[in-house]
Design a protein that fits this description.
Length: about 800
């Protein structure tokens, strides 16, 4: 503003305070999930605005202020690091980041006053700075409108609620801002008196209040306009575009993990999931309840499951691998021998009460990995060509090299009859012991071929081709040590809950079933449970606060609850099969990525359990089992996924939908505020980059003026004339070949009439004369002539500004640096 006076500036400052306070309050109420305004923001905005007014009053004060701020920040950081140590500073920053993520996800009970104060003041400082720049220094109605309304647009799209009062305050400030913009446009630059702004502010304030009051009298529509089928298609299209251009093949990984399968994003537990329907493999088998595991995690740290990598044993290069890769299958035979107390017994694979010998073929489609996907009781693995196979501590198999589309293998495995009362009875009688001591005597296992009544053969238990005890890597004692370990993050109430659920049970099998049933019946299934707080144990939060989730929530909770009872359990990840075949093949997609639990029973090894509500019917091959599902899943975006889950059960099976009764202010889990923060941070980064570029170009011009003013007059004149030619070139006027400076100046005056524009204070003809004198005469220019040249440059820039417009002028000069 070129004609500002104290009244006009006062009006501007009031406008900055109102706009800054309204936007800061909006962000505050959204970030902290509250409808109560912050008094601290109202108090802070006033001195911050006045501080910026002093800092950016002149060019010199702006430069000094920027340097001073940089020095203070650098010195302050150095002092903090020196006194507390860099490690302590990093710990403090980590604590702040954890608190910030938790608080923006709605966990209001996590109160740290220091962090709250820092966040509130930082928000007020940044918003006020932005508003000040585009209100006082570079008044731009369009930039502020787009930036600030984008905040409310993102809030609407993400269903984030804030304070109604802060929105009303913003609308009031925006109306004032808009009316000031109209006033400026109507008055024009030359006759506009900024002092009228204060009177204008007083006159139009009641008008703004009346407009807002009339608006509130209209009926309120609670829901936004929506076309469900169009919303679904738009969401799917956006997801496809993101997946296509994100540069990440969601089905490519060295070793399988649910977090990187495309269904999840990281190995951190929790968070909302985006459905991914990438077709990853084809499976041929007769059993729809086949669970193909590829990863088993031993250690839990309160936020994730992990296994120490790097411990692989090579099984050599081969085409066929028998039971030497899976001691768990051997252990099951030993358990049967020990439990049945017989020297010799026969098992018909199609008629026995414990398991059925089955076959499967797995073929990779859109997947690249080293992992081999196998059921828990596999005993034979056959490839099309020789492969080097590696075995890790959890007896998970992988190939030495990454395999991709077309890679296939055949499996033989024992499909456990998990509903068999005889098998259940044996599992109930399983007790803590080292089974190998009970099978040192020789037993003959006779397996009847399913195609004939004659024995397929009889093998000695100590034969290397059978199931020798020496192939078992872990004794029961070591398993009880490794798979009952828990971190300190597990709370006492989790341990108490485990005791409460199983208080009437007297064996590990019934305890495991009780926990499985408790979780599947009482915790609704959803793919959008929100992000759990990083300052809380994941399982504790799920069991007592979140109370809904997907497979990793259920599997983690069951594993931890079992370990609280000293029952060995492990968290397992892999794929399940879709509910139905297509053309005789199960087409597995990333939607079938899954996590479940395996519980260790002495003498029988690892037995799978399924605590995830919609999939219990699948594992136990009983499609009458009911499911508990969150009402979140009734959203139209989950239609296809819900249809898939429904096919795992009969139509007559009950489905219980859990409808949340808590208000929006009671649960912050539905409010993806972190997304808003990321978007705001991205916008802020863009603004910061643009501001940096503009600052550089501004100071380049400032330095040019200083160089012209302080340098030798003749040399300075040559530099100034070069800059004038650049500015005129921006307007499309250039020096023609053979044209003299005098002729060029006369042509420029005819086009722009600079003499009249400056009210006869200067002209390009006069400046060209100075240039000719400096260029060709031996007489030096005077400092007064240089000052007149600098004045001409300022007049020329005002002329260009008026002709090209505010946006084009600012963009070309400050961002592109064209003149």
């Amino acid at each position: 503003m070129t004609r500002e006076n104290k009244f006009g500036m006062l009006a501007n400052l009031i406008l900055v305070m109102l706009m800054s306070a309204s936007i800061s309050q909006t962000l505050y109420t959204s970030l902290f999930m509250t409808r109560t305004l912050s008094l601290m923001i109202f108090i802070a905005v006033i001195p911050i605005t006045l501080l910026f007014f002093v800092m950016f009053r002149t060019k010199i004060s702006s430069l000094v202020s920027c340097i001073l701020i940089a020095v203070i920040l650098t010195a302050g950081s150095a002092v903090i690091i020196f006194k507390t140590g860099i490690e302590s500073a990093l710990i403090w920053l980590n604590r702040y980041s954890i608190w910030f993520v938790d608080i923006t996800n709605g966990y209001k009970d996590i109160s740290v006053p220091v962090f709250t104060t820092i966040t509130v003041l930082s928000t007020a400082f940044i918003i006020t700075l932005f508003v000040f720049i585009f209100t006082i220094k570079f008044y731009n109605f369009y930039v502020t409108t787009i930036m600030f309304f984008s905040i409310f647009f993102v809030q609407l799209q993400l269903n984030i609620s804030g304070s109604d009062l802060s929105f009303v305050l913003f609308i009031f400030s925006f109306l004032l801002y808009y009316f000031f913009y109209i006033l400026q446009k109507r008055n024009g630059e030359k006759t506009y008196d900024a002092g009228n702004r204060l009177k204008y502010l007083i006159y139009i304030s009641p008008v703004c209040i009346i407009v807002i009051a009339i608006t509130f009298m209209f009926p309120l529509n609670q829901g936004r306009f929506s076309i469900p089928w169009l919303d679904t298609r738009i969401d799917k299209t956006i997801d496809r575009v993101i997946n296509k251009f994100s540069g990440v093949d969601v089905s490519s990984f060295d070793y399988f993990s649910f977090g990187i399968s495309g269904f999840g994003k990281t190995d951190k537990l929790g968070g909302n999931l985006k459905l991914n329907n990438t077709h990853v493999m084809n499976v041929k088998t007769d059993h729809s309840n086949l669970y193909l595991r590829a990863a088993s995690k031993v250690n839990y740290d309160g936020h994730r499951w992990y296994t120490h990598e790097g411990n692989f044993n090579s099984l050599g290069l081969g085409l066929v691998y028998d039971r030497q890769f899976n001691s768990d299958t051997s252990l099951m035979f030993m358990g049967l021998l020990s439990a049945l107390k017989g020297r010799t017994f026969s098992l018909d694979m199609n008629q026995n009460d414990y398991f059925e010998s089955s076959a499967a073929e797995v073929e990779f489609v859109n997947m690249k990995t080293k992992s081999i996907f196998m059921p828990v009781k596999a005993y034979n693995l056959k490839f099309r060509s020789p492969q080097e196979v590696l075995l890790d501590n959890e007896q998970m198999l992988s190939t030495k090299d990454i395999k991709g589309k077309g890679f296939s293998y055949n499996l033989r495995y024992f499909n456990l009859n998990l509903k068999s009362e005889k098998l259940i009875d044996l599992l109930r009688k399983s007790s803590k012991s080292d089974v190998r001591t009970s099978i040192r005597n020789q037993y003959n296992i006779r397996i009847l071929n399913s195609d004939s009544a004659t024995p397929a053969g009889s093998t000695d238990i100590n034969d290397s081709n059978a199931a020798p005890a020496s192939n078992i890597n872990d004794t029961a004692d070591s398993i009880y040590t490794n798979y009952t370990r828990l971190p300190d993050t597990v709370t006492p109430r989790v341990r108490e809950l485990a005791q409460e659920i199983t208080k009437d049970k007297n064996n590990n099998y019934d305890r495991a079933k009780a926990i499985e049933t408790y979780l599947s019946k009482n915790y609704p299934y959803t793919l959008a449970p929100g992000t759990p707080p990083r300052s809380r144990d994941f399982v504790d939060y799920f069991l007592f606060d979140g109370k809904k989730g997907y497979c990793t929530y259920y599997a983690s909770a069951m594993t931890v609850l079992l370990r609280c009872l000293d029952i060995p359990a492990r968290y397992v990840e892999g794929y399940i099969l879709p509910p139905e075949k297509k053309d005789g093949v199960y087409k597995v997609t990333n939607q079938q990525a899954h996590a479940w639990v395996e519980v260790y029973f002495d003498g029988f090894g690892w037995i799978p359990f399924e605590p995830t509500s919609p999939f219990v019917a699948n594992l136990y091959n009983d499609r009458t089992i009911s499911a508990t599902i969150s009402s979140d899943m009734l959203d139209t975006g989950y239609n296809d996924y819900m249809e898939m889950m429904d096919r795992y059960r009969n139509q007559g099976a009950a489905v219980t939908y859990d409808f949340d009764t808590e208000t929006e202010t009671d649960s912050g889990m539905k409010k993806p505020v972190l997304t808003l923060i990321i978007i705001s941070a991205a916008i802020g980064l863009i603004v910061l980059v643009m501001g940096t570029i503009a600052s550089i170009n501004y100071f380049k011009f400032y330095n040019l003026q200083r160089k012209i003013k302080k340098g030798d007059p003749n040399s300075s004149m040559l530099i100034a004339y070069g800059y004038i030619l650049k500015a005129l070139k921006f307007q499309g006027v250039t020096l023609h070949p053979g044209e003299t400076p005098t002729q060029f100046s006369e042509r420029v005056e005819k086009i722009f009439d600079i003499k009249s524009f400056s009210f006869n204070k200067t002209s390009f003809t006069k400046i060209s004369g100075y240039y000719v004198k400096a260029r060709y005469s031996r007489n030096p220019l005077t400092h007064k002539e240089i000052e007149q040249t600098l004045e001409f440059i300022n007049v020329l820039l005002e002329l260009i500004f008026e002709k090209s417009g505010r946006f084009k002028f600012g963009f070309s000069r400050y961002l592109l640096g064209r003149f």
